């Protein structure tokens, strides 16, 4: 399993976790121009070190247990964060006629919904183990920053240029590979066993593969400064939205007895 714990001193660059993956995880394509790989690696490192990824709430949760109501609100907000992401990612396909990009988008979404049990169903099972049922989620009112995050991601993926959309997705999948590891640590610290934590352990590797899929899709297109500007605009707008989201969730958790 690929472990990504960037708050600890790194003995190797973070991108080596993406270069060297276990069997069955999507691998990066070989890039002829080494400068392209260096650019995408350095962009990945900037994403991994962003406050949206190294957020104080996520880092604290790894070693500090939530009270039951804090836990309920934290994961209810996560539900509204994750709910429609596969649909938005699928919407990117209409923006391209490049089969390589289309292939990587399809592989990404197939991981989420193509199995006998979709990942959203796995997440619903996790929530149920915590005592959070669908009926409660239907009545739950998410934070305004969560609504803004959801709508912002939708716009990035479906209303932006394909380069901007892929930048947002690169940030999304890279961020997610680290986020799920932190949340898994927090759940383990709270005493939840591997069976309960299955959704999170599953996604530690899945999200690394998804980040690699975006690497494969964008690598042929980031030679120009113009394309890189669009790509980075998507990545860092996504991270801005996520940073605001975690700030809001942190305030919510802190104000919850």
List keywords for this structure.
257 residues, mainly alpha, 12 helices
Question: In words, what does this structure look like?
Answer:
Helices cover 68% and strands 0% of the residues. Residues 5-9 have low confidence and may be disordered. α4 packs parallel to α9 (144-158), α4 packs antiparallel against α12 (225-254) and α9 (144-158) packs antiparallel against α12. With 257 residues, it is an all-alpha fold. It contains 12 helices and no strands. The N and C termini lie far apart (35 Å).
Low-confidence stretches: 5-9
Alpha-beta content class: mainly alpha
- Count helical runs: 12
Distance between the termini: 35 Å
- Share of residues in helices: 55-70%
Largest sheet, if any? none
Average pLDDT reading: 92
Q: How would you sum up the global shape?
A: globular
Total beta strands: 0
What would you report as the Rg, rounded to the nearest angstrom?
Answer: 18 Å
Strand content: under 5%
The H-and-E topology, N to C, reads as HHHHHHHHHHHH
Task: Write the topology of this structure.
Layout: H1 16-19, H2 34-49, H3 56-61, H4 68-82, H5 85-91, H6 99-113, H7 119-129, H8 134-139, H9 144-158, H10 162-189, H11 198-218, H12 225-254
Helix pairs in contact: 4-9, 4-12, 5-6, 5-9, 6-11, 9-10, 9-12, 10-11, 10-12
Concise summary:
By secondary structure, the protein is mainly α.
């Amino acid at each position: 399993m690929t472990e990504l714990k960037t708050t600890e001193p790194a003995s190797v660059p973070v991108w080596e976790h993406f270069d060297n993956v276990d069997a069955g995880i999507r691998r990066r394509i070989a890039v002829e121009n080494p400068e392209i790989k260096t650019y995408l690696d350095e962009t990945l490192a900037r994403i991994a070190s962003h406050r949206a990824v190294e957020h104080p709430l996520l880092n604290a949760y790894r070693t500090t247990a939530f009270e039951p109501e804090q836990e309920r609100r934290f994961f209810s907000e996560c539900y509204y964060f994750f709910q429609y992401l596969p649909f938005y990612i699928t919407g990117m396909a209409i923006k391209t006629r490049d089969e390589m990009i289309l292939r990587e988008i399809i592989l990404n979404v197939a991981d989420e919904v193509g199995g006998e049990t979709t990942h959203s169903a796995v997440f619903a099972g996790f929530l149920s183990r915590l005592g959070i049922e669908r009926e409660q989620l239907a009545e739950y009112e998410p934070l305004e920053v969560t609504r803004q995050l959801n709508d912002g991601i939708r716009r990035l993926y479906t209303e932006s240029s394909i380069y901007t959309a892929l930048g947002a997705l690169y940030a999304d999948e890279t961020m997610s590979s680290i986020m799920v590891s932190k949340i898994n640590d927090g759940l383990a610290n709270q005493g939840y066993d591997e069976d309960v934590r299955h959704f999170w352990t599953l996604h530690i590797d899945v999200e690394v593969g998804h980040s690699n899929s975006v690497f494969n899709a964008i690598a042929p297109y980031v030679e120009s400064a113009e394309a890189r500007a669009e790509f980075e605009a998507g990545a860092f707008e996504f991270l801005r939205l996520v940073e605001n989201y975690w700030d809001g969730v942190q305030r919510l958790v802190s104000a919850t007895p």
